[in-house]
Write a structure and sequence with these properties.
Number of domains: 1
CATH superfamily: STAS domain
CATH topology: Transcription Regulator spoIIAA
Low-confidence stretches: none
Largest sheet: 5 strands, mixed
InterPro entries: STAS_dom_sf
Mean pLDDT: 90
Structural class: alpha/beta
Strand content: 15-25%
CATH class: Alpha Beta
Number of helices: 5
């Protein structure tokens, strides 16, 4: 797990661990980036299943409940299968765009 920062955004990049292990690592180190927006970059994985994405649901719900964005990035996922409760996009640019839009919505209290 590699963690990069871009302002108030923490970008967590998957290396070689399984999705389940990555989720456990994120939960263990959560205090490190709980005040940042989170992007989880899974682009290095060949295929992401619905079950893989659902592993992140608890973290996503908690993070979004604290008025912070949580976005998963992967080109190797069927976006039509993804639940509405979690944001999954194919590119990093779209992840940054989502965070920017959600910041505007929070500022406008939408």
């Amino acid at each position: 797990m590699i963690i990069d920062r871009d302002g108030n955004i923490a970008i967590i990049t998957q290396e070689t661990a399984t999705v389940k292990t990555l989720v456990q690592n994120i939960e263990q180190a959560y205090d490190t980036y709980k005040n940042d927006h989170l992007i989880v970059n899974l682009s290095s994985l060949d295929k992401i299943t619905l079950e893989d994405v659902i592993e992140f649901l608890r973290i996503s719900n908690n993070h979004r409940g604290d008025k912070k964005s949580f976005v998963i990035v992967s080109e190797n996922v069927d976006l039509n299968q993804m639940p509405d409760e979690i944001v999954v996009v194919p590119t990093m640019k779209e992840a940054f765009d989502i965070i920017e839009m959600e910041d505007i919505e929070r500022d406008l209290e939408l």
